[in-house]
Amino acid sequence: MKNKVKQILTQVTDPEIPVLSLDDLGVIRNIEVNDNEIIVTITPTYSGCPAMEVMEQDIIDVLKKEGRRVGLPTKVTVITQLSPAWTTDWITEKGKKALFEYGIMPPSKKGEIICPQCKSKNVELLSQFGSTACKALYKCKECLEPFDYFKCH
Ligand SMILES: [Zn+2]
């Protein structure tokens, strides 16, 4: 049953990054299924990240819709767990790869930032805040394209 839920949840992606599933983002912490209820525990990426409310609703919607077909309970509860806090370490390798291919530099522990367009290391920071607070805005000095860096934390 849990696996069915997990399978369905791979369809739910980050509202801001459609190539990244919540599973690859490391947001889904626990799944419980009993006779009449599915309980999904999530940890928000950034507290106050407006995307989290959208994600929560997406989880409920997809599980209600797809779950019915495979005999899962139609009652879905999403629990938000704030501790331990989410860290960029929870993004899977598959998720990091998807980010890079999408044009966002994934979190880098070594702080090595590479342009996702031309893979140059000759980049400069334009702003600590990119399209969202979770990202910084960089510009590549080789291909001159701006890009987001998903900040480590
Ligand atoms: Zn470049």
Fold and architecture overview:
The strands form three sheets. This protein has a four-stranded mixed β-sheet with strand order 6-9-8-7. It has a three-stranded mixed β-sheet with strand order 3-4-5. A two-stranded antiparallel sheet has the order 1-2. The model has no long low-confidence stretch (mean pLDDT 91). The chain has two domains: 87 residues, Fe-S cluster assembly (FSCA) (GMP Synthetase, Chain A, domain 3); 48 residues, no CATH class. The two termini are 33 Å apart. Strand 1 and strand 2 form a beta hairpin. By secondary structure, the protein is of the alpha/beta class. The protein is 27% helix and 27% strand. Zinc ion binds next to loops.
Largest sheet data: 4 strands, mixed
| Cα gyration radius (Å) | 17 Å
Average pLDDT, to the nearest integer? 91
Number of domains: 2
**Biggest sheet, strands in spatial order?**
6-9-8-7
Beta percentage is 25-35%
Low-confidence stretches: none
CATH topology of the largest domain: GMP Synthetase, Chain A, domain 3
Name of the CATH class of the largest domain:
Alpha Beta
The fourth-level CATH homologous superfamily of the largest domain is Fe-S cluster assembly (FSCA)
Structural class comes to: alpha/beta
Distinct ligands, ions and cofactors found in the model? zinc ion
What CATH architecture of the largest domain would you give? 2-Layer Sandwich
- Overall 3D geometry? elongated
Series of H and E elements: HEEHEEHEHEEEE
Distance between the termini: 33 Å
Helix content: 25-40%
Number of strands: 9
Number of helix segments?
A: 4
